[in-house]
Amino acid sequence: MKKEPKFPNKILVIGVIFVLAGGSAMLWTLGLLPSLGDLWPLPLILLGMYILYSVFLRGKKDFYILPGMVLTLGGILFLLLNTVITEKNLSKIWPAFMLVTGLCLIPYALRKKARYRIAVLIPAISIIILSCIFLPFSLGIAPFSFTEFVLTWWPVLILVVGGFLIVYYSYSKQRRRKTLKTNQPKSNPPDSQ
């Protein structure tokens, strides 16, 4: 029996290290990294990426996907706050944290069985949609207030809920039909005598 090497995907790991080092060097040469103290999120990113590597490529438990995603995406967000994003007022970018949370839940949900997948995927997508709605208002990009937006677009919520219920009904009906077909006993052909 052939023994599996300790690090079977070392080329991938080395590639990720080069991408991170090259990205950091690029930010440094462009003057976006004023000091090495701004790189404090890099260990968080590396730890998160190692955890994700362990889950997806080494077969570790799915439980570690969420912490790995939080460390990776949270570290990237804080690195961007230290380097690229000039507005450091967290009260304006709070929806970005919602976005990170929703994005963290998606890979976790996709590794679950169908019933549990939907139970995690729907809240994840909802959080992402809400953060994308709140972010333009929080940053002051939207040409109107959030109150005007809600008063104008509230019927869309009813349309989305109705559409979801229709899709859910169709999906559950198909599933019921498949279940009935697989549970029906096979009929034997009549004996010809």
Structure characterization notes:
The protein is mainly alpha-helical and 193 residues long. The protein has one domain (37-175). It has helices at residues 10-29, 42-56, 65-83, 90-110, 114-139, 146-183. α2 runs antiparallel to α3 (65-83) and α4 packs antiparallel against α5. The protein starts with 9 loop residues before the first helix and ends in a 10-residue tail after the last helix. The mean pLDDT is 80.
Counting helices, strands and paired strands, the structural category is mainly alpha
- Report the mean per-residue pLDDT as an integer: 80
Largest sheet: none
User: What's the total helix number?
Assistant: 6
Radius of gyration: 24 Å
Shape: flat
Fraction in helix:
over 70%
Number of DSSP strand runs:
0
The SSE order reads HHHHHH
Counted up, domains total: 1
Strand content: under 5%
What are the segments in which pLDDT stays under 50 over at least 5 consecutive residues?
A: none
Question: What's the N-to-C terminus distance?
Answer: 58 Å
Provide the fold topology.
Blueprint: H1 10-29, H2 42-56, H3 65-83, H4 90-110, H5 114-139, H6 146-183
Supply database-style keywords.
mainly alpha; 6 helices
Write a short abstract of this structure.
This protein is an all-alpha fold.
